[in-house]
Amino acid sequence: MNTQKMESKPYIEGLRLDTITKYVGAGLTIISNDFRILWANKFLTNRCGEISGKGCYSTLNNRTSICPKCGVKEILETGKEQVIHEQNVPDGDGQLARIKITATPIKDEQKNITSILERAINITERKKTEEKLSEQKEILVQAQKITSMCSWSLNLKNGKVIWTDELYDIF
Fold it and tell me: Nearest-CA neighbor of 45 among 22, 65, 64, 61?
């Protein structure tokens, strides 16, 4: 690599961006207004390979058209400062992963949207845990109804008391 390129402002900025985002634990991409990936952090390129210049929907989601609920599209159409949505995407093992995507516009000095930053966080395990917790709560509610038992809790820090529905039925 020649010295001029290594000393150029875009090269140094790219190197700095790669260094800062290397261990963030989330996929980060900068996407153009025509849905092309301009930059991706190491977290993402380690999983997907070199993806700069490719279409985001085809490269990241194996789609032939823009994704439903696309945050990039919504920002370009509405000018919103942030769009958050969840979607299922294929992971490296052929399974579907639940991803939370946050899209934010990048603007020039005149406040024109020049590109969009997307952050993608895998929330698959959190969703599984929430689902199990909900199932267990439903089992507890049913057991309390069947046995006419109830429960309550007291938060000692703020004095808040929480009663189960069965306790309200009794009193």
Answer: 22
pLDDT of residue 95: 82
Q: How far is CA 91 from CA 94, 124, 159, in A?
A: 6, 11, 45
Count of CB atoms situated within 10 Å of the CB of 29: 26
DSSP one-letter code for 113: E
List the beta bridge partners of residue 113: 107
Percent of the chain predicted with pLDDT > 70: 89
**E-assigned strand segments in the chain:** 27-32, 37-40, 83-90, 96-107, 113-122, 152-154, 161-163
- pLDDT at 140 > cutoff 70: yes
Which residue do the tokens 């058209």 mark? 65
Q: How far apart are CA 140 and CA 145, in angstroms?
A: 9
Distance CA 27, CA 94 (A): 18
pTM: 0.72
Check residue 11 and give its pLDDT: 59
The answer to whether the beta carbons of residues 17 and 39 sit under 8 Å apart is: yes
In contact, 73 and 79? CB cutoff 8 Å: no
